[in-house]
Amino acid sequence: MWIPTEQEKFGVVLASFRGTVQHGLPLEIGDTVQILEKCEGWYRGFILKNPNAKGIFPCSYIHLKSADIKNKGQFETVIPNEDSVITEMTSTLRDWGSMWKQLYVRNEGDLFHRLWHVMNEILDLRRQVLVGHLTLDRMRDVKQHITARLDWGNEQLGLDLVPRRDFGMVDPDEISVTELYRLMEHRHRKKETPVPASTHHLFVQAKSLMSTNLGEELEVFFSIYDGREGRPLSERFFVRLNKNGVPKSPERQCTLFVDLGSSDLRKDVYVVAHIIRIGRMGAGEKKNVCSVQYRRPFGCAVVSIADLLTADSKDDHLLKVYACNTESEWYQIHENIIRKANARYNLSGSNTGLSVSLQLLHGDVEQLRREFMVLFSRGVSVTKKLGFSDIIMPGEMRNDLYITLEKGEFEKGGKSVARNVEITMYALDIDGQILKGQVAAGSGEPGADEYHSFVLYHNNSPRWAEQIKLPIPVDMFRGSHVRFEFRHCSTKDKGEKKLFGFSFVPLMQEDGRTLPDGTHELIVHKCEENTNLQDSARYLKLPCSKGNLPGNNQAVKGNKESFWITSFLCSTKLTQNGDMLDLLKWRAHPERIGDCLSKLKEIDGSEIVKFLQDTLDTLFGILDEGAQRYGLKVFDSLVHIINLLQDSKFQHFKPVMDTYIESHFAGALSYRDLIKVLKWYVDRIIEAEHQEHIRQVLKATEYIFKYIIQSRRLFSLATGGQNEEEFRCCIHELFMSIRFFLSQESSGPGPMNQTQVVFLQTFPAVYSELLKLFSVREVATFVRETLGSLPATLHSDCPLEAVKLQCIAKTVESQLYINPESRCILLPVVLRLLQVHMQEQRDLVMCAHILTSMLSLLKKDDSEQPLLEEVDLIVDSLLGVLLRTILEITNRPQPAGNTLRLQYQDVTGEFVACLLALLRQMSDKHYQKLLQCFTSKDDLRDFLLQIFTVFRILIRPEMFPKDWTVMRLVTNNVIITTVLYLSDALRKNYLNEKFDYKVWDSYFYLAVIFINQPCLQLESFSSSKRKKVLEKYGDMRVMMGCEIFSMWQNLGEHKLNFIPAMIGPFLEVTLVPQPDLRNVMIPIFHDMMDWEQRRSGNFKQVEAKLIDKLDSLMSEGKGDETYRELFNSILLKKIERETWRESGISLIATVTRLMERLLDYRDCMKLGEVDGKKIGCTVSLLNFYKTELNKEEMYIRYIHKLYDLHLKAQNYTEASYTLLLYDELLEWSERPLREFLNYPMQTEWQRKEYLHLTIIQNFDRGKCWENGILLCRELADQYESYYDYRNLSKMRMMEASLYDKIMDQQRLEPEFFRIGFYGKKFPFFLRNKEFVCRGHDYERLEAFQQRMLNEFPHAIAMQHANQPDQTIYQADAQYLQIYAVSPIPESQDVLQRDGVPDNIKSFYKVNHIWKFRYDRPFHKGTKDKENEFKSLWVERTTLTLVQSLPGISRWFEVEKRELVEVSPLENAIEVIENKNLQLRTLITQCQARQMQNINPLTMCLNGVIDAAVNGGLARYQEAFFVKDYIVNHPEDGDKIGRLRELMFEQAHILEFGLAVHEKFVPQDMRPLHKKLVDQFHLMKSSLGIQEFPAYVRASPIHFTNGSPRTCRNSVPNILSPEGARLVARRSPLTYPAVNRYSSSSLSSQASNEVSNITGQSESSDEVFNMQPSPSTSSLSSNHSASPNVTSSAPSSARGSPQLLDKHKHSRDNACLSPRDRPCSAIYPNPLDSTQRMIPHQIGDSTLPRSDPNIATPDKVVKPLPSSWSLDSGKDANAQLPDKFLVPPVPPRPHRSGSPAKNTRSQSPVATPRSPQKNPAPPFTPSPTECHSAGLVSNSPVLSGSYSSGISSLSRCSVSEASGTEGPPMLGVASDPPPPHTSSHLPTSASSGSDELTTRRENKTPPPYSVYERTNPRRPVPLPHSLSIPPPTEPPALPPKPHQLRIANKLDSDPRRLEQPPRPRPLPRKVSQL
Questions:
Q1: 203, 538, 545: which is closest to 383 by C-alpha?
Q2: Which residues contact 501 (CB under 8 A, 6 or more apart)?
Q3: pTM, two decimal places
Q4: Which of 371, 1352, 1504, 1845 can bridge 1713 by disulfide, Cβ–Cβ 3.0-4.6 Å?
Q5: Largest separation between any pair of C-alpha atoms in the chain
Q6: Helices 177-192 and 965-989, packing angle to 10 deg
Q7: What is the pLDDT of residues 1605-1638, one digit of tens each?
Q8: What number of helices (H) and strands (E) belong to the chain?
């Protein structure tokens, strides 16, 4: 039976449990579980991180821990009983764990590893805490380390700042808000601005001396030297180096120069290193000359401490070592180096350097020892500062005497040269014994018994400047002396050192004073070498110093030999001051007491604090014995000493005085005299002229009271409390005097004010002393009356005002105020003063400080009556003024200075914390009382507006630092609680007739920004943080949302005041991803629609506002798919019963569709690089704003967003078209336009001019120069109309440069790809749609497909080209279907016109393309295995786009899809036409010598002749020329004739080609040519041609533009009913599936035959990409989907499981791209790369025809250069001769059905600006005028257009395409056709035109087109016969822009005559944009 547990409530999982039993709960090791029930060794409970999943688990897997239970029962919570640091550590490490892994994923390796080390360190420290074996001090240290590391990690990971007290986390509910703010502020300041250390230390490590001339031991002395004052600041640090220049003792090579002040870290303070060598006198002497070693100067190095402040502290420094030029300058070599006196020193050696490590450390030495344990583990000596540090610490023991050997003056002593003097120094005690180890050359080495100076060579006036430290104990100082022995060091003989004199100096004088600091000239007493100086008593009687000699001792004075030393004592026990000694020995000289007391003020403070206790005992001893005589002087002396301790240098001695008062002070009677003298001084204040001394007395008030109170306590203890009343009376009288002097007013800041200031500064320190003898209420009364006596009204500039506040602040912080008894007495005084200052906005920093301290005493849960009264008092006095103060300081501009800004932020934060603390403390009664206080509605209104405004300020993100989430949550909790109270007041007072819009608006605005603030968006929190917030506060957004809804419902008809103003804010609230909040808030929109419908009969305002706000909000990342669905469903449900349901549904649908697009747009914009998805999405949104919403401004904004995307992707042509959209909305007018986006305020003309120039520039960069020319003309026309000839000239030159670029530069022709997006996973703008995309330069199918798969990484590439079925459409996935398509150009007349250079034609081939196509071969009926061409049909699909390419995007959606079937006969005609065209082109190039070699022509001739001989053309004869076919297909008679004609034509071209070939063929290929000629004769005989028919021979072939041309002949339109079957078009998404493998039914034999017929030869690089018809060997056409179109796998890897093996070869080869296909009979050998032809000059798609009845030869284009080279542009531009010599060819008779009589030329027509334009006569186009423009490739030879991996089936000849696109061509009639054939013409021609009309009726021209600027063309008749040469005059240029505007009013396009007008969604002009 399951029993609820009582004690077993909480545990930790010891081992993982899989939970495989029934109801088992899976556990992982380390999980914490809460236990609910227990049963037979099993627990039931849940894991704390997932409380919803409950289950059972074994008891043995759980380690139980003690815990507290809150809310016992069903909703109980368990809090573990463990140290709060442990709890925080555990939860924090869990949070870090997941984030730590993310660091690895984001490749933030550095932080990853640092965090890893910190986590391990915390875990180790956690173990130490859990074990519980640590001492209290160690536990404190460990917790400090833990919290420091937790804070570091939280800061690095961007987590919240944790408020702590004593290392434990603080619960915000258990402390006041002000206290919480102080904790947060303290931790924030500690983190941000560490307190600069006042003490600094220099770590020095001597590494080595590097020099080439070493070989002797060295001594290095480091010291810190003040260059400004010219004296050392520290002792010396001494390091011994061996002969290699390395420290002898590695443990003694480091030191720490301690106690450097901040003033010492300046540029003129240096580290100086003096280097002494130990060895021979001269550095170059031989080793055996002398065995005695001397200390000799070597060199000096200097480095500035300022350099260490900027350098890397861990760097080693290599110091240059300098030597003296003369030894006598050695004593000042460091000064010379510092002063850069170069003449006095030089480099010791070019390679000499001292390597040292220098590091500045800051802070306390003990702390540094812990932090830099590695440094201090080496045995670091401490090198002290000379003198005391800036701060003297009590208890510091030091007794160091420093003696510097300055200089000496010595006689020659009978020598011919000067002496080599060495000093030996000893310290001796009172008995004359040498003090062992008391002579130290420096720190780092132990002290020695003696010291030997260095020797200067031959110098009788040596200067040493060597400093020696004598650390002699205090007790040995008396009687000790120092002796200096002088020896001459001989360099001869044995190098003896001969004594010749000595000096000495006693260390202490007879009166107890030590040797005074300064320089002393000592007497050099002469002596013999063997003099015994051990008996010191003998010489101590002699005089030591010349300064102390009596006047009659002339003998000694006449001694010329002297020795100078400088002494300096640094002692905490000894003094050199006689006055100090006299005072301490006052009893010995009672008559000198007065003088001693007077001189006390002149004694140095450091001497006084040394003997502080003795001095105080002396003073009170004198007071006890002579109070009447010396009382005033003792009091003054006491005041002097007390004030001395106020100095920062001695402030640390205050505890010494406190200890003295508590433990050693014994003056039980002193209080009477102290009170008496103090009152005497206070009473004299008003009369005294000079108050400086009185201020000194008042400054010492605190300690005077301490002595008074302690003295009285001692007296009470001694007497049992006698004279109590007398003492109280004295104190009362003293305070009366104080109050009287405080009450004195002065007109300005005079001496009296200054004295009052001094007293108030010290007064609060007296409270604690008074409390020792008086009750709390008595002391509070003292304070209240004293503070109340101050003048009430003072000048604002009076210093007393600020000091009053400081006094109040100290009062509030004192123990006196903390006591509730005294607080009720003091509170009114404090509040009155605070209120005055805050109202006048004075001293706000101090006011905030006081208020914070007051409110820190208020706890959240206190409900005692006195506390409630206090809150009442504070609310009445300060709430209003506090609100006004916060408003005032937050509206001020922030100060510029850093310090001021921090202070400003602190004040704001403190006032805010005070307000929150006060509001949190207020209860229902307080709010009721507060609201009742307002007498009028206006006052209440002002209060509500104030508090709502302040709340909005509190919600601002900048109010608190970003990691103060705890503080923000407390703030929000207080705000929502207060708002709930105040909303009642709003409802009661400001509804119905008393309605106040401003208050309600402020309320709603506050509620909206409250819900939207980032710190309440729980979804962005970690799960643990979210859980904590919900447990403590709940979801405050939902609470506020419910309040908004409730208040909205109360508004009634006043809701109309907030429509549409509140639509945006409420929409922002509903976008918050909180389901409950959305469910509450979305219905408000229905309410708004309803009220707006009632008011105005529609809700246009609601719709407009919704749409405007949605864009900005969703672009900020708000909203999601769930919101869209929820918005739709809730509102649709709400409006079901409304009368305006239809319009409501329309609005909801519009908004929902906009959301779809905006969500897609936002998702796309999150991606990194600009891709098609981003651009497509932007285009979709742009069009939606234009067509559906008519939002002009948003439309223009997205135009510019799209423009920026194109520029970033370098789609310059598309960028131009995009910007053109905005350009077309503007007119050439002077209307002023406002500033908009990045445009300044300017006129419409100026903006349009700027846009024109920008667009021209981008067209230029995109190589779309034809379009740029049109804009240049329009702009030039404007300049001309304004007579701006300067700009006109520039524009004409720019236009000319564009023409040059067209002719001189090469352009790549892009590929086009059809891509279908199927499946529900695609964005809305792509879903289940098909597009045609314009590829990038050099981009082939495989690259394009891979790019698409990269953009859609989750998409699946479909493996066929068939239309997908519904399962694919509805699939929850992404499918891509990609294959290449061929463009169908519209500008046919330009392409067909002779003499137009290819550079110009290439533009029209790939620009302004609306239609694309691809072919799929299939067999209809029974397939004849012997000749499969009989049944081989082609399914041709034509795709029509919504816009032409190129345009504002690289891809456009397919608007219309048409399927046409091409019969086998028509297919055969196409194949032969294409081959003839290829032959003509190659022959022309060969004639023009454009080919580098003749190989391409050779191979093409070989392929065609070889295929014909082997039966290729015979297959056509068998198929179509047999009697059965002619009988069964009488309607094909003309086509059969056409086929026969083409065969004859091919033979004729071959014959001509062989003639050309013979002319150019090289000698080594003559045998091949002979073979070709022989085979050609066989071919003619196989075709039954003995000679050409008369009509072929009648006229010569005239190769205009280098192409063999034949007479025009007619063929019925293949799209007419007679020629083909038109397949009905279905819905764009339900096209019938086509069989991908339809080609598999063809046998390999058939494929061979196809090859034989066509003679196609393709090179590996698509050289012969001639696009033959479906009868060629590749059975999947360029427009059908071969496997390598739709699959991302390599083509060689794909296979068809449906094919038999015997068909596999054919199928595989068909699926290969041309470059992958093998060489075989089907695929002839590829050509050499130098022999390749241009793809486009062969394929017929480069030569589209406008009329189906014009034969292919009539439409041949000028060929392109054949060299496969980027440098072929020059050749490509070479003009061919007009005529070539060709064999005579008879003219062709006219065939039946020839439409030549009725055809006219079709020119490209300008897209009219408006559909209502009138028609005008057609004009012939200029080479630069066109319908569209786009990015065209640089090099025609690199276009590689249509062979992008899809097979090589022919594109249709353009005849059928143009038959569907235009009416019969108009032009000059040819010879009339025979009468019996005329009946065929109308059917053919009209079918094409009718169909075109049908197709174009519904197509709206693009609103963006450069062609709107073009005008109709002039008609130019086409040549009626091939033998007529082309016109010699150049084509006409487009007219000028001003003519365009006139001509554009006429519609020149016959196809658009019937087009219905379509209104533009946008107005023509953009108002103010």
A1: 203
A2: 410, 485, 486, 524, 525, 526, 527, 561
A3: 0.62
A4: 1845
A5: 166
A6: 140
A7: 333 333 333 333 333 333 333 333 333 333 333 3
A8: 65, 41
